[in-house]
Design goal:
The chain is an alpha/beta fold. It contains seven helices and seven strands.
Length: about 240
């Protein structure tokens, strides 16, 4: 699929990895729907940058992905503006530390709602649009921890494992018109509160002995969209080898 003129909906696009993906795709001529929930100022800045730097048509759309009823409205708003959706990137994610023994039902449900349930219902809402077009691509931003979970983040890791399973199920369900693939980032953008020592430890835990960047994830997304036309149901690690360490 050539991105020139195509419409891409990216959830959680205002900041961090989502922002890098939006910028990379806009440089290839994509029209971008920037989804956000609380980061309105960041979303507005990104949309302005997309228009001014890349000449890319873009809109911002606010939706709380915890509210399943609002998800259909998000898709409808994008289709109403652009007339199509060619690519959906399920990037929005909740990442919180929850110690075993003190994890609440709300902690569990919030991770599952944003990281697994929302991608399912977004895909369900966008699939008829793509099927009518005769083509479409869905990319799920998972995590290497879906396969190798770590302590104190159980709800997060389990929700990403659910997304990993959903990726395979959707690839089977939506073929042949729609291709569904996942990207599994590793240490590409560490939390802001990580110390220098923690960052060094994370880098040394990868076989490549360094951290990645959001742009590494964006390049993987570009490949799946523009060059990976014979790929579906795949999950590509972008983790410096962390998954095999």
């Amino acid at each position: 699929m050539r991105l020139q003129g195509k419409v891409v909906l990216i959830t959680g696009a205002a900041r961090r990895v989502g922002r890098a993906i939006a910028l990379a795709l806009a440089r290839r001529g994509a029209r971008i729907a920037v989804h956000y929930n609380r980061s309105k100022a960041d979303a507005e800045r990104l949309a302005s940058e997309l228009r001014e730097s890349n000449g890319s048509e873009s809109i911002i759309v606010k939706t709380d992905l915890n509210d399943t009823r609002a998800i259909k409205g998000l898709v409808e708003a994008v289709v109403k503006h652009f007339g199509a959706i060619h690519v959906l990137i399920n990037n929005a994610s909740l990442y919180e530390k929850n110690a075993f023994g003190s994890t609440s039902i709300k902690d569990w449900d919030s991770h599952m709602d944003v990281n697994a349930r929302a991608p399912f219902f977004l895909s369900q809402a966008v699939a008829p649009v793509m099927q009518t077009q005769g083509e479409g691509k869905i990319i799920n931003i998972a995590d290497w921890s879906a396969l190798r979970p770590y302590a104190d983040y159980i709800p997060y890791c389990v929700s990403k494992a659910a997304l990993f399973c959903l990726n395979t199920a959707l690839a089977k369900q939506l073929a042949p018109q729609i291709q569904v693939n996942a990207i599994m980032p590793g240490p590409v953008l560490l939390p802001d509160n990580f110390s220098a020592r923690a960052r060094k430890t994370a880098a040394q835990a990868t076989p490549l002995k360094r951290l990645g960047s959001p742009e590494d994830v964006a390049q993987a997304a570009l490949y799946l969209i523009e060059s990976g036309d014979f790929i579906t149901g795949a999950a590509i690690p972008v983790d410096g080898g962390r998954l095999i360490a």
